[in-house]
């Protein structure tokens, strides 16, 4: 069944630490999850493929589990990507109208011209998002159709990634006998899953703490206007713990989850934790260390990641547009103390983001770690809803066969 056409929608999020597949069906009032499959990612590092066969095995396992649970066979997926050195750039194009009324053809011609004007070398454009129109220099127009003017301009937010990264990821999916309906930037999908409409309009930064990378996106006036990826994530925290305490990666991950915190407290010095040493099987030879030592390893790395986000955001020129709110998602965002530390470093009001636009998500799969997968489904509905002019929700006219989806979109976006 083709995604979103005659059958279910399918989302595939291939990350550094896990591979997740969601299968959903369209219903009146929203999307209902029918199948979920997630596996430990193997053959991946920092969002890129390091072993094709191992990565293929992980993807096959996740997709098979989702198909079995849903009782459906999927043929194509909406694929989330968080690597490939994404570049975010705004392109502005003006077209002469000769004082006539702006119609659908004028809009299409302007958008086509904007897309054609941006051709980065050895890169693939995965998003071309209209973030604002202007008529005769008057900006802030969301739907110019029906207006008269001499010139029609559009600002397009272009997101491009390396050609070879897209080829490798597409090849990985095709080796699993699946097609790629659309490649979607991971922080964009996470924003669609977790943000409320007011946040999108007023300005917000979505920060996706993944295993191998941390990506962030700025939303303003209802659309994503900037995104970037930093190649440092939660797995680097686990590596620091493993090296600092001479333990295995599995034990480091366990200690991070059970005892880890991004903020120090007075009780840390008194609480003693057992650290199994590498190669030792006898529990008696475990290294007993205060919890403060673990926190002392975790906090600097989380601070470094957040400071990099702050500095990159400032350098991008979108810091003011991003407003005073930030939403955290991704598996590493669930570490205790991250939300409070992010508020201090970013000087923003910070909340933890969970998927809010899909139904039937269990507690285990309805948290921040699964925001990208859920957001891919929201993107699929958004993509099918209209001709993607970047118009405001109230300006869009739903297609007859997608009327129910259109009503859902208006309620949620």
From TrEMBL:
Residues 9-194 form the SHS2 domain. Keywords: Cell cycle, Cell division, Cell membrane, Membrane. The lineage of its organism: Bacteria, Pseudomonadati, Pseudomonadota, Alphaproteobacteria, Sneathiellales. One of its GO terms (biological process) is cell division. This is Cell division protein FtsA. It is found in: Cell membrane. Belongs to the FtsA/MreB family. The keyword Oxidoreductase does not apply. Self-interacts. Interacts with FtsZ. Pfam families: FtsA (PF14450), SHS2_FTSA (PF02491). SMART domains: FtsA (SM00842). CDD domains: ASKHA_NBD_FtsA. It is a peripheral membrane protein.
């Amino acid at each position: 069944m083709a995604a979103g056409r005659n059958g279910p929608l399918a989302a595939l999020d291939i990350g550094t630490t896990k591979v997740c597949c969601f299968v959903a069906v369209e219903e009146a009032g929203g999307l209902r999850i029918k199948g979920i499959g997630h596996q430990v990612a193997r053959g991946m590092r920092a969002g890129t493929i390091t072993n094709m066969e191992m990565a293929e095995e992980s993807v096959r396992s996740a997709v098979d589990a989702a198909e079995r649970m849903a009782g459906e066979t999927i043929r194509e997926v909406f694929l989330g990507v968080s690597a490939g050195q994404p570049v975010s750039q705004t392109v502005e194009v003006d077209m002469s109208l000769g004082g006539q009324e702006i119609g659908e053809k004028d809009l299409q011609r302007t958008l086509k011209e904007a897309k054609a004007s941006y051709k980065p070398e050895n890169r693939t454009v995965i998003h071309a998002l209209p973030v604002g129109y202007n008529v005769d220099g008057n900006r802030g127009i969301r739907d110019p159709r029906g207006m008269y003017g001499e010139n029609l301009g559009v600002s397009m937010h272009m997101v491009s990634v390396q050609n070879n990264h897209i080829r490798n990821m597409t090849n990985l999916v095709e080796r699993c006998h699946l097609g790629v309906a659309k490649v979607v930037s991971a922080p964009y999908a996470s924003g669609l899953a977790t943000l409320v409409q007011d946040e999108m309009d007023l300005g917000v930064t979505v920060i996706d703490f993944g295993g191998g990378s941390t990506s962030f996106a700025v939303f303003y006036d209802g659309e994503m206007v900037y995104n970037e990826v930093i190649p440092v994530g939660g797995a680097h925290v686990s590596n620091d713990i493993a090296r600092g305490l001479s333990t295995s990666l599995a034990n480091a991950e366990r200690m991070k989850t059970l005892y880890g915190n991004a903020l120090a407290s007075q009780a840390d010095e008194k609480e003693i934790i057992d650290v199994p040493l590498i190669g030792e099987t006898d529990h008696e030879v475990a290294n007993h260390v205060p919890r403060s030592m673990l926190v002392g390893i975790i906090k600097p790395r989380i601070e470094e990641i957040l400071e990099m986000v702050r500095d990159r955001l400032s350098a991008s020129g979108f810091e003011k547009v991003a407003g005073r709110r930030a939403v955290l998602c991704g598996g590493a965002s669930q570490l205790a103390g991250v939300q409070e530390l992010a508020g201090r470093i970013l000087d923003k009001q910070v909340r933890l983001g969970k998927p809010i636009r899909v139904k039937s998500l269990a507690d285990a799969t309805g948290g921040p770690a699964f925001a990208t997968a859920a957001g891919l489904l929201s993107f699929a509905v958004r993509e099918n809803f209209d001709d993607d002019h970047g118009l405001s929700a109230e300006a869009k006219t739903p297609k007859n066969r997608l009327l129910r989806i259109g009503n859902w979109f208006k309620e949620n976006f």
